[in-house]
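Quick one - first record:
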Amino acid sequence: MASHFKYKKVLVFGLGILGGGVSVTNWLLKQGAKVTVTDLKTANELGQSLAKLIGPVKLRLGGHSKKDVDENGIIVVNPDVSINNEFIQYAFERGKEVTNEAMIFFQNFGRPIIGITGTRGKTTTTAWTEYFLSSMFRSAMAGNSTAHPFLSVLEKKDELEIAVAEVPSFHLELVESSDLPAGRQVAPHIAVITNISQDHLNRHGTMQEYAKVKASWLKHQDETQHCVLNADDEWVYFLLSQAVCPRPWYFSAQRLRPGLNGVWHSKNTVWLRNGRSEKEIFVLDDAALSLGEHNVSNLMAAALAAHLAGVPWKNIQEKIKSLPQVPFRQEIVFANERLKVINDTTATSPEGAIQALKRFGGSGTVLITGGTDRQLDFSRWAEVLKKNIQPGNVVFLEGSATDKMLAVLDDWPAAAPVCKTLQECLEVALKFSGKYGKSVVLFSPASKSFEKFKNEFDRGEQFNALVRKFCQ
């Protein structure tokens, strides 16, 4: 592993302030690489990140230059940097090795990996898959989280038998755009795509390009590897048209179409089809069913992936009785006999928020929503909102997406004028929830957070702090 980077000149393109760039830089230093870091931000802006670096690096801050690309053989790209960036394109033109932390992980882990991507449900499916695996294997989650950075998991690979990697589209762009040499190709042993819906169009441009990126890691799978796809998703055949999945499996909320292998649920029973054989594999209890249709879908994807990795169905059924709650994904952060508060900060798209509206909507539900726009369409979100939330029971946090929400809702009444702070939103929501005997305050923004917060997790932490202040 270390030999590929030892003594090599490596350019980290984007240090950032959220920790990912620091993790990559420190890992490269441990491998013996000669590291240069470039970032548009200045040293003052990057002060906290720079203080966490464990060794000497060359700093090229406050801008980028082609000279830095020319002087380094390997370019490690921060996922927040698009591959269409002029300097990344220049690196391709100059024949540089362009990679990122996810690709480094896949190319060096040396053990089976279940890779999970999709628009919604990635984190929940990843957490539950690893939870099922833990009954049989020394396993770990990796990726898309400050709690489980790819390269931190890579460092402890000798302790592990298998990993479950959550990989967003920004990390997969390089797989789609690069002709990777043999031995450097990225292909999970089991590739899971939870679903495809409108998201990140400010980055990818069109739904077709976005879906191509999601399908990219099916390209290099061989006949020993599996893919797990959502049979109910309208993009499933487009995904299969982009790459040949040697051994496709499916999950569905209804009986699978003839010829498809996989799992589906009918009422509370989950069924498996494998060739001509069909059998009942387990029964979902009321607690599992109460998670909502989208989470039952995530559960089936996780169960199928874990089973393909070697976990018996009986182990999975036993584990389902105590599924962990995943932070910031429709997380119940406060509950008493009169009030329940839900933190769904990771609903960063209209489609993600729709699932929360369907699960928690009702006459006593007050919704907090709004944030930063990413060129997404809120029409369907507005339709579902009107069916599940009473007029006057929505509190808006100001932002560019909020302006679009208000436009598509037209004259549908809100609870109050648009709020400037999250605290103001919560105070208004709690006031309105007090008129019901039993009520729910649902924080599901349906949009990103960058106008007011570092990211959606910072937004979620701040919301939880406010709940502790006003609800305890």
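second record:
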Amino acid sequence: MEEVAMEPGRKKGYFTFRTTAILLVVSAAFDLLSITAEEPLFGEIRSGISVGLYHLVYAVLFTALGIGLWRARKWGYTLVFVTAALYTLDKLQFVMNQQVMENFLRQHMSGYESALQAQGIDSMMLMQAMALTSIVVVFCWWGFAAYTYWRRDYFSADGG
């Protein structure tokens, strides 16, 4: 396969990192919009200040990462791995606690039980889907981290 010439002055990864930066800032905005939404944290479904801080941390992290990727800063490169690690820990604590997953599912599917059962979908199937989705997204984060490592020459101390 033949390599396509890029515009002069653009490093490989430019489009990918710029697009990711935009999507991360959009994700941060959605995190702020759902700042009061309950989340499974540390073995319980939490609400209030603790969950507000949780959403705020992710919003700040995603915004900073978006800026770091957009400007091609070395700290943005490092933040990719920090974010992937934090996200991994967050999802592991969710997936490893079956009781929290059951409570979270029960809370979000309340009122839809009969419709789901009519389709042959039970709570165990939904829990497996939630766990698998969480694991796949973690793998996606680490895939992006691997791509970032592969394209590490895109980043510089001054962003240039």
